[in-house]
Amino acid sequence: MTNGSQSVAAPTRGTLQYFKWAFIVTIVGLALGVALGWQMTGTVAGTLGVFFICAVLAVLEISLSFDNAIVNANKLKDMTPAWQRRFLTWGILIAVFGMRIVFPLLIVVIAAKVGPWQAMVMAASQPEEYARIMRDAHLPIAAFGGTFLMMVGLSFFFDHEKDVHWVRWLEQRMQKYATIRGIEVAIVLSTVLVFSHFLDPVASEVFFKSAIWGLLTFLLVEVLGGLLDSSQEMLQAGAKGGLGAFLYLEVLDASFSFDGVIGAFALTQNLFIIAIGLGIGAMYVRSMTIMLVEKGTLTQYRYLEHGAFYAIISLSIIMFLQAFVHIPEVITGLGGATLIGISLWSSIRSNRVAEQVAE
């Protein structure tokens, strides 16, 4: 990390150095998985099974979060050094412990109408019932998270100041209509209405209300972020991306985490194994975020963030579709990774063409 007068944008490390803490957390996490597996089963086979599930969950989290790291880097590059460090320290703690442990417990507290301690006891002694409650809560979670992520994705493309286009024929049209106030909200609400129309009346009401809360959360975070950051600019000229941006990134991470947390129950019903596996993956996302900011990768590969935001929109649609049918997490992860991979390839090809023209 850097001192208070410097940004994390100074490239001073090799690639592997960025993942030092991720490697350390991986070793500690897998060791905890082995200890937990032995304590639970008392057999070598059972211990190896828990070890394997922790490793698979870590890979699942990484594959689902490529786009998360890119979007984080896109926001972080405009934040002040102090707020960059706060997000990369306190923010990651909130992401690992809040979303991977507290969030599933909170769902059970609300859905089962029990206290936090009872929810923790249920996670330890009644994992099947705990997992059932989590699965039953998937519809409102999918509607909330899908709506929030769709607003994030569309807001990137409906920007009249955007001057770099990857899928030119589409993005130029979106930029053209960006001056129409509320166009993203209209598109998202129309999409929500279409999906809710095909659900039964009870599920449709739950889906629609949750989607509205997702939309309101996005708008409130945007408004609150603008108010907080503008007040900070009055106190400190030139300050960018303060508390408002921090809150935005935390809600964004929560929305990205919904799918991984719910999907993890397909592999294990043990909350503590899920926390270990997804926590390891979250540390790699943090390392990727820092590397993208310091190395200026988003500037070097101009279409990379476009691919990430297309992946976000596709993820939001997948979350909506999961109101009707289960979509394996491997498809979700591979879909996002493919879009990002194509955008990276397009960026490299564009750079080569630019170099040839310059010569």
TrEMBL record:
Pfam families named in the record: DUF475
The UniProt record lists the keyword Transmembrane helix: yes
InterPro entries: DUF475 (IPR007427)
Regions crossing the membrane: 21-38, 44-66, 87-112, 137-158, 178-199, 264-285, 306-324, 330-348
Keyword terms: Membrane, Transmembrane, Transmembrane helix
Domain of life: Bacteria
Protein name (database record): DUF475 domain-containing protein
Organism, scientific name: Paracoccus tegillarcae
